[in-house]
Structure formats: C-alpha cells, structure tokens
C-alpha cells in the first residue's frame, strides 16, 4: 500500500471514529425502546425516570423514523417521551401503503388512522396526564393535522402540533388550536403555505411572529439556508420545535439541539474515503478495455435514452409491491442491454470478472455504508417483503451499471462522459414520467436518490473499476443500486 493510501486510511479512520463517538453521545443517557402498534414499528425515546409529555413523531414520504432523529433525540433529552414510527409501506413496516393516493378518503385516511393507533399506544405506555403533541414532516404534516382534528372530535384533544415543510388543506382558522409551521429557507411554496396558515388567524401575520386569536395560536418560522431535507437537521428548526412545545406545556430549561447532521455526513464521508486505501488491497488488473470512440459513446448513451421510454411505457405492467420499482427495473434492463450492444463490449477486451472485487464493493456499499445509514440517517435494512423487490430490481440495475461502467471508462474515463451518461439517464426517466404521468410520476422522486448514489457509490465504484476493471465495478454497483432503491421507496398495494 502506498504512502498516500496509508495517509487516507488514517485520516478516514479518525473521521469515522470521531463521528461514531459524537453520534452515540447524542443517544447517550436515553432509554430507547422498540414498540409495536399493531403492524406499525415504533421507537420510544425518553430519559430514565422522567414523566414528560408525549410527542408522536411522523416522517415524510419515502422517509423513516431514523430520518427524524434530530427532533426525537433533542425532545427526549428535554424530558419528553418521544414516540417515532414508520408509516405503512415505509422503513420496517411490513404493511404496504394502499388506497387512492390522490384522495383524502384513500391513502391519507389510512395514514391518519395509523397515526391515531400510534397515539393510543403512546398514551397507554406513557400516560397522557402530561399532555400530547404531534410533530411531522412533509407528507406527514397533512396526516398529523387531520389526526389532531379527529382526536379532538373524539374527545382526546392534542395540545400542540408542529409541522415541518407543511402542506395541508385541513388547517382552518380555529384548528388545530396551537400550530407551529417550520419551513426551510429554500422551500418557497411551502413557506407560503405555512404563512397562509398563520394568516388565517391574523391577516398581517409575518414569518417569525406568533399570532393569537382567542385560544388559537399560530407561528410560521423559517430555518435559514436549508431545503426539504436539510430542515430536518437545522438547529434553528429543532430549537423552534422544542420552544413551541415547552410553551404549550409550560416547561422551561431548553436543551441545546442535537446536531447529528454534520456528523452523519462526516461518518458517511469517512466510510467512502476508506474505500480508496482498501481498494489498494485488491488484485490489480493487468489489461484495460479498449477506449470507446466518441461517436460510439454518444450513440450508446443518447439512442437508448430516447427509445427506451417509448418502448417501456408501452409494455409496462406493474407487478412489484413498490411504487414504480417494476417500471424502473424494466427501464434499466432495456437501457443497459441496448447500451451493451451499441458499445460492442465483446470487442473491448479488458480483464475478466473479478468476483472478489465485485463482492467486496457490494459488501462495503451495502453492509458497512448501509448499516451506518440505518442506525443514524435512514432505513437501509430491508424486511422480508423488500428482499423480493431488491432481487427483482437487480435484473435491471446490474446490466445497466455494467454498461455504465464501460461507457464511462470504469474509473479511467473522462469526466464529461460520466456527466453525459448520468444526464441521459435522468432525462430518459423524466421522459417516461411525462409520457405516463398517472402511473410513473413518482419516477421524478427517484432522481435525487440516483444522483446521491452516483456521487457516493459511484465514487467507490470508480476506484474499484480503475483497479479491477469495469465488470467488477458494474456488478458491485448494480447490486448496491438494487438495494438502495429497494429500501428507499414505499411498499404499495393497489388494493
């Protein structure tokens, strides 16, 4: 191993160790208990022996309990009993989402009922003498607002509601009575929705101002410098949520917001950086594939990107219990197969498949990186229902990533080829969503996941490809991509 690889290994190991230490410190001193509300998995966070108010925490679309930990940990350390859960179809929840996603009486009604079931569990486990609050992000904001209204009608009023990145048509001038709406600075339309909720109480309400009419209190606040995901880690947003709840329950002694976001980035960055020195331990390929001429490259990238949406949307028949996963598998297998033919990979030569290198990349990208994600950031460990989805997705992701590895030079190609290949994929998927928006609109939501995958796993794959060849990098990345997609998107049943 070269000096440079040794130096990178030392720095990365220190970064990983420091990050894990800080992230575990954020959890230290808390009782963290796994619970079940029917089929719904939940986690209770609380200080030992402290009887604080109950706060039920709900995540957004394609999220999980882990994504909400900055709020859960901070509020638990402040003396609240925090119950976070996975909505149906999300995280570890084995029950798929179902119903009409466009109707309030469809999927939304099911999620409201599920939230109320979790509330019932929390009240039974914690008691409700200290009061009850709801906190949710994005999709969950409409759900928790409607759950609060339903609880009030049933004679079990919720004392406070905190919405993050809110959109809900259920908010009225009188309900929920005590509502905080937090938005990220770069969430323009959601900021407007939050301010509109405050102006139902006072027409000239401004952001950052608490307004009141009788028993109704509203506040719309902005977390600076963040967007739809960053707002979940913003110290300003977390502090505002805690202060709002403290005021609602007459509590004092606010704690500093738990800052997990920077340490999650440092941990995942350290794990990626460790890949570089570890790749140096793999056997080095002696033969490189022939360079692909520019004309053939453009043909292999652009023609499939244009043709596949036209073909795939015509023959697509849903068969997997995950939103658009089956279409994505079909799209990728057609795209990858056509690219392999146009690239004429059988003429490029290069090293044979290094199964050990491919397995090492898959184990590192799924096992080490994935387990770190699962503990601190987002659900990455699948339940049994998702394993079938992952296996099916691999039929598309593996040939696509092998073709991509050849097209982009397997870690040795020019940067513009990587950008062109990724952009062609994104445009191809966007075209499919435009052709059949009723069934495939959720493809647009996949694009940020794919971008993050290419930035993180793609970098690890480039190092493997440069040393061991495109087949090893493509196979390993294909398995990683199938896993990442299989655990990210909600299980869904049309029934």
Topology:
Layout: H1 3-27, E1 31-37, E2 40-46, E3 54-58, H2 69-77, E4 81-85, E5 97-98, H3 104-126, E6 132-137, H4 139-153, E7 160-164, E8 178-184, H5 188-199, E9 210-213, E10 216-223, H6 235-249, H7 261-279, H8 294-315, H9 325-343, H10 355-376, H11 384-407, H12 415-435, H13 437-440, H14 443-468, H15 470-488, E11 492-493
Helix pairs in contact: 1-7, 3-4, 7-10, 7-14, 8-9, 8-12, 9-11, 10-14, 10-15, 11-15, 12-14, 14-15
GO molecular function, one term: hydrolase activity
Transmembrane segments: 263-285, 297-321, 327-346, 353-372, 387-407, 419-435, 441-459, 471-492
Protein name: Alpha/beta hydrolase family protein
Structural class: alpha/beta
N- to C-terminal separation? 56 Å
Mean pLDDT: 94
Q: Largest sheet, if any?
A: 9 strands, mixed
Keywords: Hydrolase, Membrane, Transmembrane, Transmembrane helix
Domain Serine aminopeptidase S33: 54-170
Protein name: Alpha/beta hydrolase family protein
Transmembrane segments: 263-285, 297-321, 327-346, 353-372, 387-407, 419-435, 441-459, 471-492
